[in-house]
Amino acid sequence: MILKNSHTPIGMRKRDRNDAHRLIEEFMVLANEEVANGVRKRKIPFLSRVHDEPNDEGIQILEKYSWEKSQKSDSSKTYR
Q1: Beta-carbon count within 10 A of 11 CB
Q2: What's the angle, vertex CA 62, arms to CA 50 and CA 2, rounded to 5?
Q3: Residue 48 · residue 36 · CB < 8 Å
Q4: How far apart are CA 59 and CA 24, in angstroms?
Q5: Residue 23 to residues 36, 43, 46, Cα–Cα distance (Å)
Q6: pTM, whole model, 2 decimals?
């Protein structure tokens, strides 16, 4: 996603992901899960964020936007 003013999406750009990216992401997720389990096990108070369930309208908008942009899947371009 390309953001305007650090919070308003104004476009999308495809980025290539390789095995290193996937491996790092897996380790990040595993680390987060282990920290959460350790904190919970030790009954240490901490803040966590619980995401609301996405609503159907929002999912449909995202699916439509993603589908339209995927039809132009040249990774060197920015779509707006």
Answers
A1: 13
A2: 90
A3: yes
A4: 27
A5: 20, 30, 27
A6: 0.47
